[in-house]
Specification:
binds adenosine-5'-diphosphate, binds 2-acetamido-2-deoxy-1-O-phosphono-alpha-D-glucopyranose, binds magnesium ion, 11 helices, six-stranded antiparallel β-sheet, 13% strand, three-stranded antiparallel β-sheet, alpha+beta
């Protein structure tokens, strides 16, 4: 076993004796490990939080603690229906080792976290999961720290975009004129949508902000949704962003980084199933402007993802973990194909929302 990891894990208030520590998951941002203990003690998730992306890890952990405590007070099984933060032995919610920050939560056994949705039933359950998460937090009224500035704010993203293009730090802009035009041709419609958030037409709520399918746990026994995980980005935003980001993930017939663009497109049956689950939980509490823009939110977040992958490629691949040199460009093309598929099927998406 890695003795450095063991030393870090032993600084947390864990029950039992550690038997092994193994890497887990497919996240793009943090490094995740499962900590297995001997006998009947629980197992744990140990994470090295990415402090470059999250500049205020203590503030982020305070958010996660506050939000999970709020949920625990409302659910039948507080150890399974949300994450449980395990503090360090000194009482802090993290351990700092040099410039790295580590955090621990309970491992929730008997669960799955698929990387893609293969059935409408799973998409329906995912929709219920996001909707229920938002419903449980609807009356959360303490201020939350902004863990990543302007995370889903396209006005801020365009500012970063303009600066990155101007700097062109690794000389990639010249060869990317076509891809850049995909972003520029949609600048106005995306900013017009965001101005409805800025002027209060679309309300703000406590939201998850990273609702891709690998960030929810399902019960292994029957496939029902259990809880949202990866709560690093929980903060104030619009409910629509959670819906849109999930549609980007659940409805894609291909992979987020598919090299074969023929595989990629939006599956309307999955869209309908996810929307049914989400609206089952949220419909009664949404205002008309949210319902009117719900389908568009999928285009908005998918567009933002095209921009973020391409911007990271132009910036020399500093943000997302990559497996090979062109990875962010491959992701850009695959997400753009998905965006086009959503644009082509947009009228039908709106009809489905209306019918539900
Ligand atoms: P990242 O921020 O890198 O995406 P996540 O918090 O999403 O990290 O964790 C990565 C993966 O680890 C998840 O997709 C899930 O499979 C697994 N995982 C995370 N937390 C738990 C937990 N509490 N119980 C069981 N599995 C978990
Ligand atoms: C990242 O952390 P992870 O892998 O769940 C990213 C999301 C992107 C996603 C794309 C904090 O999610 O915003 O949509 O990759 N998270 C952060 O797969 O930037
Ligand atoms: Mg994750």
């Amino acid at each position: 076993m890695d003795t450095k990891l063991l030393t870090i894990a032993n600084q947390f208030a864990l029950e039992g004796t550690i038997a092994e520590i193994k890497p887990l998951g497919e996240g793009f941002i943090n490094d995740t490990f499962v900590v297995k203990t001997v006998d009947d003690a629980p197992n744990y998730i140990l994470q090295r939080k990415n402090h470059v992306i999250f500049p205020d890890v203590p503030g982020m952990m305070e958010n996660i603690k506050a939000v999970t405590e709020h949920i625990k007070a409302k659910v039948a099984d507080p150890l399974r229906e949300t994450l449980t933060v395990i503090p360090a032995k000194d009482g802090k919610l993290y351990v700092q080792e040099g410039e790295n920050y580590w955090a621990v939560c309970l491992f929730i056994p008997g669960t799955t976290s698929p990387v893609r949705a293969d059935t409408p039933e799973l998409a329906y359950q995912g929709g219920l999961g996001t909707g229920r998460f938002q419903a449980l937090l609807a009356d959360f009224n303490k201020p939350l720290n902004e863990t990543i500035k302007g995370f889903h704010n396209i006005r801020w993203r365009f500012q970063q975009w303009d600066e990155t293009i101007a700097a062109d730090p690794v000389g990639r802009v010249a060869q990317l004129q076509e891809e850049i035009s995909w972003i520029e041709s949609r600048r106005k419609e995306m900013l017009d949508f965001w101005s409805l958030v800025e002027d209060g037409t679309i309300p703000m709520h406590v939201t998850h902000n990273d609702t891709k399918i690998s960030n929810i746990l399902f019960n292994e026994s029957d496939g029902s949704m259990l809880c949202m995980i990866d709560l690093d980005t929980v903060m104030s935003s619009t409910s629509l962003n959670d819906f849109g980001d999930a549609i980007r993930s659940y409805t894609n017939t291909g992979a987020e980084d598919d090299r074969n663009l023929d595989n990629v497109g939006m599956n309307l049956e999955m869209f309908k199933a996810y929307a049914e689950g989400y609206l089952h939980e949220q419909k009664a509490s949404m205002v008309q402007s949210e319902l009117d823009w719900l389908a568009f939110s999928a285009r908005y977040i998918t567009f933002e993802q095209v921009l973020r992958f391409l911007m990271d490629y132009i910036d020399g691949d500093k943000y997302y973990k990559t497996a090979y040199p062109e990875h962010n460009l491959v992701r850009t093309h695959a997400q753009y194909k998905l965006l086009q598929s959503m644009e082509q099927q947009y009228d039908e998406m709106c009809r489905i929302i209306q019918a539900i």
